Task: inverse folding
């Protein structure tokens, strides 16, 4: 598990050096995680992500200049494959909701237990969407209830099964295993679901499934 080729490559983006140092100190003792770089603001974070191609970016929200939300949008525009895990001290809905809508795979707070943070990194790297109950509630309360409405009937039964498993936090690999499908077939189903429901990403798909009672 500890060889370099199998490690999760992580980029730290936070304007406080002491925070970055603390994160690096903890993460560097994890056998399966490697910190490949740091950045002090959103502009530098986007540039470093494009240069280093990390697997996961730990991103603060509030930073001088380009903040984490704008950096997220720019990363998505670059089609950067990195998963972005927001790590912040801000809990307000006005911060949580835009970050997840901008493409974050998860949202955790800076007082998170270190082992839980490592678990969160592994989880988003595996393709999970991290929706803590209060975060999911915030999104559901502000999300447009008509998003994707009326289109659920266009989903096949298999697509509805896949969508329910997305809402349960399963990765494509886990969905493939559960439904006895190839991972490529699952990816095709996910693409079809997003297209049919006019949704941007797995986070929105998970919320649609919750809203429409497709969770287990």
Result:
């Amino acid at each position: 598990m500890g060889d370099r080729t199998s490690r999760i490559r992580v980029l730290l983006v936070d304007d406080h050096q002491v925070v970055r140092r603390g994160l690096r100190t903890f993460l560097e003792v994890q056998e399966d995680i490697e910190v490949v770089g740091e950045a002090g603001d959103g502009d530098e974070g986007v540039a470093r992500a494009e240069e280093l191609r990390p697997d996961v970016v730990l991103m603060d929200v509030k930073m001088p200049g380009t903040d984490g939300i704008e950096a997220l949008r720019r990363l998505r525009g670059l089609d950067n494959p990195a998963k972005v895990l927001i790590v912040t001290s801000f809990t307000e809905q006005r911060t949580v909701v835009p970050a997840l809508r901008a493409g974050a795979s998860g949202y955790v707070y800076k007082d998170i237990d270190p082992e839980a943070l490592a678990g969160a990194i592994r989880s988003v790297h595996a393709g999970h969407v991290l929706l803590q109950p209060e975060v999911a509630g915030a999104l559901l309360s502000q999300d447009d209830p008509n998003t994707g409405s009326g289109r659920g009937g266009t989903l096949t039964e298999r697509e509805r099964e896949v969508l329910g498993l997305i809402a349960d936090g399963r990765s494509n690999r886990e969905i493939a295993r559960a439904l006895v499908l190839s991972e490529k077939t699952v990816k095709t189903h996910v693409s079809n679901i997003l297209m049919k429901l006019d949704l941007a990403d797995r986070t929105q798909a998970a919320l649609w499934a919750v809203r429409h009672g497709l969770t287990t």
